[in-house]
Specification:
The chain has one helix at residues 2-23, and strands at 31-39, 44-48, 52-59, 64-72, 78-84, 96-102, 109-118, 122-127, 130-135, 141-146, 148-155, 159-165, 168-173, 179-193, 201-206, 209-214, 224-238. It has a 17-stranded mixed β-sheet that branches. It has one helix and 17 strands. It is mostly beta strands. It is globular. The longest helix is centred in the first third of the chain and has 22 residues, at 2-23. The chain has a domain at 2-128.
Length: 240
């Protein structure tokens, strides 16, 4: 057990060194470096991104891979990769891969990333601005984003939690989620849901804006939708 834990730590350190080296130097000035991270199976990938474009794809199998490019002016962005250890005898499903990329102070930066994960992996995403494209995920998905356009298709995730400020979310589910939680501030969202029996239990708290419910509803359904809108619009539509 001790040897196994040590092995996991070594792997995490190797990944960290590669990712940090890829993020590049310490001097001031414009720069551009490739990012390349490969990891074995974990339960959750937690990605803190920089402004720019991010594509997340769920795959049938294979390792977790993050590739792309970082660009900056001033000082190079901070980059760190670490794997949280399993606890209580948990296997890979108990570990979290943290991928952190943050612009340096007074040094604007952008990224163009592609993240591929096994479809059932949970994903936690923090995106400060830009464009996010998601497809084929079947694990839990949590998004916190601002000034961003998020497009998600083919979702089979059991739960989606999204907090969007000043942006737009378009999500289409291939399988009905058990839990859909949306927090919108000066934002719009369009969500297409498969038909379920008896329907979706929809609850809403709206300060300014509206929720249009174009799906069947039922007060006692296990399929729950919760919307909190301080300013914005939500369209719940049938995916057919």
């Amino acid at each position: 057990m001790v040897l196994a834990a040590a092995g996991l730590l070594v792997v995490a350190l190797i990944v960290t060194v590669v990712a940090t080296a890829s993020a590049g130097g310490s001097g001031a000035g414009p720069g551009s470096r490739a990012v390349s991270v490969t990891s074995g199976a974990v339960g959750t990938v937690d990605l803190e991104g920089v402004p720019g474009q991010l594509t997340i794809t769920g795959s049938a199998h294979g390792p977790i891979r993050l590739t792309g490019q970082l660009n900056w002016s001033g000082h190079a962005p901070y980059a760190a990769v670490r794997t949280g250890p399993a606890t209580g005898g948990q296997a890979a499903a108990g570990r979290t891969l943290h991928l952190d990329y943050v612009c340096a102070a007074a040094s604007p930066c952008t990224g163009d990333y592609r993240l591929s994960v096994p479809a059932g992996t949970a994903v936690v995403l923090s995106q400060p601005s830009g464009h996010v494209i998601i497809s084929g995920l079947a694990g839990r998905l949590r998004i916190s984003a601002a000034s961003v356009d998020v497009s998600a298709t083919g979702l089979r995730t059991p739960a989606l939690e999204a907090s969007i400020t000043s942006g737009h979310l378009a999500a289409t589910f291939a399988r009905a989620p058990r839990q859909l939680s949306l927090v919108l501030g000066s934002a719009q969202a369009t969500v297409r849901l498969p038909a379920v029996s008896p329907g979706y239990q929809v609850s809403q708290q709206v300060t300014s804006g509206y929720v249009h419910t174009g799906v069947a509803t039922a007060a006692s359904s296990p399929y729950q939708v919760n919307a909190q809108i301080s300013s914005g619009e939500l369209e719940l539509l049938s995916s057919g």
